[in-house]
Design a protein that fits this description.
By secondary structure, this protein is α+β, with helices and mostly antiparallel strands. It has helices spanning 3-13, 50-66; strands at residues 23-27, 30-36, 72-83, 91-101, 106-113, 119-133. A hairpin with a 5-residue loop joins strand 5 and strand 6. The chain starts with a helix and ends in an 8-residue tail after the last strand.
Length: 141
């Protein structure tokens, strides 16, 4: 099984994703995360809470970055988000791409859209290599 498939399996098996029913597709320097919009993620004004936007954007950018690192788990060290439009139904589609691949840190950007292609949010993050090996303990198998 190749690196991208192992990362996809690791993502899908993470306990936090039990709450989101998210899906992911990873290729070199790029990742796409799709999160179904659920009323359980709505705030009082009946739209998705910003934490769900953050999760989709951070996951897409994170896995775009980790797609370029095959030996260790990367860590989000900083992430900035701009919320641009509410969503109440359908899906959040977040696409992350690495924009700077440096030996000590990677920078990736992500943009989220709804099912009609309207931009919902955008973000950028800085990612650093950790000392945690990508192995079966992390679900990388």
């Amino acid at each position: 099984m190749d690196h991208f498939e192992k990362l996809e399996r690791m993502y899908l098996d993470a306990p936090t994703n039990d709450h989101y029913d998210a899906d992911i597709s990873i290729e070199e320097g790029r990742a796409e995360v799709t999160v179904p919009v659920s009323e359980k993620h709505h705030h009082a004004a009946n739209a998705v809470h910003g934490s769900v936007y953050f999760k989709a954007l951070d996951d897409a950018a994170f896995f775009a970055a980790n797609s370029l690192v095959e030996d260790v788990f990367v860590l989000t060290t900083n992430f900035n988000i701009h919320l641009t439009r509410p969503v109440s139904a359908g899906h959040i589609h977040a696409v992350g791409e690495v924009v700077n691949d440096h030996p000590r840190q990677l920078i990736a950007e992500a943009v989220a859209h709804d099912d009609e292609g309207n931009q919902l949010a955008r973000g950028s993050g800085t990612f650093a290599k950790s000392s945690m090996a990508l192995d079966e303990e992390l679900g990388y198998e």
